[in-house]
């Protein structure tokens, strides 16, 4: 089934490819999202030059709508039946954009676009630097200003953002700054995120005996920490062991968070009622996201767990080949496809497809390819 899913993933990318870049899905999310288009392109760019122009146009669309201060948009929606608009209010979109520019240059051995966008990239890096609101090297953020934009409520220093920032600093050769991020995230008693077993999803200020932090497990943030080497080998082993111990990779890899957040708990916000996440094991509330499952395969390969990576790739193939193919999310207990937040009854999620290709090729070549 792995090969069948691989073929279907390419078909999904073809459906999502447009003259202005990768749409996040077909037909539901018919706009260019920074994170979705770049993540999809991480896999698409392993297919020779087949999607080179689409990757390029995704980056051009984002550059064209960069804000005056340097922020890269969350989404550019100018081609759907909705009112044309451009959204911002994110931190990770700018981070994924910088990663995308470097990935395009390296995958295609073509630095022409990187040169054209040099000023834009520098402006984006300056904007990111301005988000170091604690002046300690870590990026701060407001609630819902990353990919978990509807759930849950988190702010301050998040593991997802710090892992991405660490990767960006490494890419641009800022070794001193990257090591500072690594040291604080892993060891600092006031701002650190490592709890001895996994990285906390978020943390902000301390008030005497009170702590502003989340204690649940953020799968994507922790897996990115492994893949980008923010975590050392021992930490990575503990994270993967926790995933196995808590069955976070079952019935399919992997649940977005664990455990699900219950109504009435300290982490609950009333606005969660407005989305599928109001229910445990739905959507982001411990629902399964196969795009994260693909990052899980890459993390396993980083840890030289080849047989387990093969096994999880097979589970991913099964998950993605349920109809509709490459659904946005699956129920965290049953593994059955859930209703897309776009309202579409079809799957065809570009980042699910792109990352499946990245996982497939990484297993085939026996190494993490991002």
Describe the protein's topology.
Blueprint: H1 2-16, E1 17-18, E2 21-22, E3 32-33, H2 34-44, H3 52-64, E4 75-77, E5 85-87, H4 92-108, H5 112-116, H6 118-129, E6 157-158, H7 159-171, H8 175-187, E7 202-207, E8 210-213, E9 217-218, H9 219-227, H10 233-245, E10 257-258, H11 290-302, H12 306-320, H13 350-365
Antiparallel strand pairs: 1-2, 3-4, 4-5, 6-7, 7-8, 9-10
Helix pairs in contact: 1-12, 1-13, 2-3, 2-4, 2-13, 3-4, 4-6, 4-7, 7-8, 7-9, 9-10, 9-11, 11-12, 11-13, 12-13
Polypeptide structure, described:
This protein is mainly alpha-helical. The chain has a single domain, classed as Alpha/alpha barrel (Glycosyltransferase), CATH 1.50.10. 45% of the residues lie in helices and 8% in strands. It contains 13 helices and ten strands. The chain has helices spanning 2-16, 34-44, 52-64, 92-108, 112-116, 118-129, 159-171, 175-187, 219-227, 233-245, 290-302, 306-320, 350-365, and strands at residues 17-18, 21-22, 32-33, 75-77, 85-87, 157-158, 202-207, 210-213, 217-218, 257-258. A three-stranded antiparallel sheet has the order 3-4-5. Strand 7 and strand 8 form a beta hairpin. Helix 9 runs antiparallel to helix 10 and helix 11 runs antiparallel to helix 12. It is globular and about 55 Å long. 51% of the residues are buried.
């Amino acid at each position: 089934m792995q090969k069948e899913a691989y073929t279907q993933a390419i078909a999904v990318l073809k459906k999502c490819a447009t003259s202005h870049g990768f749409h996040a899905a077909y037909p539901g999310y018919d706009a260019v999202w920074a994170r979705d288009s770049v993540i999809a392109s991480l896999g698409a760019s392993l297919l020779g030059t087949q999607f080179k122009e689409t990757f390029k146009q995704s980056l051009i669309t984002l550059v064209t709508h960069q804000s005056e201060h340097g922020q890269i948009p969350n989404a550019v929606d100018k081609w759907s039946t909705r009112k044309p608009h451009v959204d911002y209010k994110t931190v990770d979109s700018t981070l994924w954009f910088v990663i995308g520019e470097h990935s395009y240059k390296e995958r295609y051995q073509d630095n022409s676009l990187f040169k054209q966008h040099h000023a834009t990239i520098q402006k984006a890096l300056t904007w990111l630097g301005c988000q170091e609101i604690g002046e300690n090297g870590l990026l701060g953020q407001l609630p819902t200003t990353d990919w978990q934009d509807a759930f849950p409520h988190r702010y301050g220093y998040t593991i997802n953002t710090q892992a991405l920032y660490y990767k960006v600093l490494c890419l641009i050769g800022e070794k001193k700054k990257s090591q500072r991020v690594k040291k604080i995230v892993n060891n600092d008693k006031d701002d650190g995120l490592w709890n001895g077993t996994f990285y906390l999803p978020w943390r902000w200020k301390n008030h005497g005996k009170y702590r502003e932090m989340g204690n649940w497990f953020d799968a994507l943030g922790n897996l990115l920490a492994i893949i980008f080497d923010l975590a050392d080998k021992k930490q990575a082993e503990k994270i993967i062991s926790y995933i196995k111990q808590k069955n976070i990779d079952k019935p399919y890899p992997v649940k977005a968070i664990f455990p699900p957040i219950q109504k009435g708990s300290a982490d609950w916000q009333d606005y969660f009622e407005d989305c599928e996440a109001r229910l445990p094991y739905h959507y982001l509330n411990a629902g399964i996201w196969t795009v994260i499952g693909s990052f899980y395969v890459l993390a396993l390969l980083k840890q030289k767990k080849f047989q387990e990576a093969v096994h999880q790739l097979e589970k991913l193939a099964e998950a993605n080949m349920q109809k509709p193919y490459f659904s946005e999310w699956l129920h965290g207990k049953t593994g059955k496809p859930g209703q897309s937040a776009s309202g579409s009854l079809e799957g065809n999620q570009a980042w699910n497809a792109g990352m499946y290709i990245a996982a497939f090729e990484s297993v085939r070549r026996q190494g993490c390819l991002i």
